[in-house]
Amino acid sequence: MVVLVAVAAALPLFLSFAILKPKTKEISFTGSEQENTAMATEIYGVKIERNPPESRLAELGVRAWSTWEGHPSKFPWEFKATETMYLLDGKVKVYVDGHDESFDIGAGDLVVFPKGMKVTWDITEAVKKHYSLEK
User: Fold this and answer.
1) What is the value of pTM for the model shown?
2) Is 8 inside any structural domain?
3) Cβ neighbours of residue 115 closer than 8 Å, sequence gap 6 or more
């Protein structure tokens, strides 16, 4: 009886957390070398690798990618191709169409947005990023 009361009391708290928290899952990005394996998070189909090692960035050729800069602003965006980006500076709050919650990306993040994804970018600190579009 005491166990049932405790479970019943904790259930609303658990459900509110489970419902409001963005869906995330751990995924693995693997490079050509075993030591380049890094854990990443996937949120609403967006893959985020926080602070990947320099060896991972070199393997991808990130420093040779094009760059883009944006000042604090808020705007809608649709990814016409899969885009991989590495943020050098700044912070962005990302709202994915069809989801109520947002998530943050910022300096040091390697992020992959899939082709066709529609988002709203809320740049809260000026951004500078390297980016590569899938061909």
Assistant:
1) 0.73
2) no
3) 79, 80, 81, 82, 134
